[in-house]
Amino acid sequence: MDGNILDAMRYVGAGLAMIGAAGAGVGIGLSVQGALGGMARNPDTYGNLLTNMILGVAFSESIAIYCLVIAFLMLFKVV
């Protein structure tokens, strides 16, 4: 009986760990929206804005990857 409850709690914990991936998705969307808005207003800043946007997207995506790793650690009983 206890094993089933613990397994269920592992699944719930892994699902909760993936909430960070939703936050990363919102962050990526806002980053791209801001960069595209800036490029539309001032096309001369295209290169600088594109570089900063790609860097911001990479940082946001790394948070999603960390969340995925934690979820996998919970699911496969590594810890």
Observed structural traits:
0% strand; 79 residues; mainly alpha
Give the integer mean of the pLDDT values.
88
Order of helices and strands: HHH
The secondary structure category is mainly alpha
Report the total helices.
3
Account of the 3D structure:
This protein is mostly helical. It is built from three helices and no strands.
Which helices and strands appear, and what pairs or packs with what?
Elements (H helix, E strand, L loop, with lengths): L1 H16 L1 H23 L4 H30 L4
Helix pairs in contact: 1-3, 2-3
Task: Produce a short descriptive summary.
The chain is mostly helical and 79 residues long.
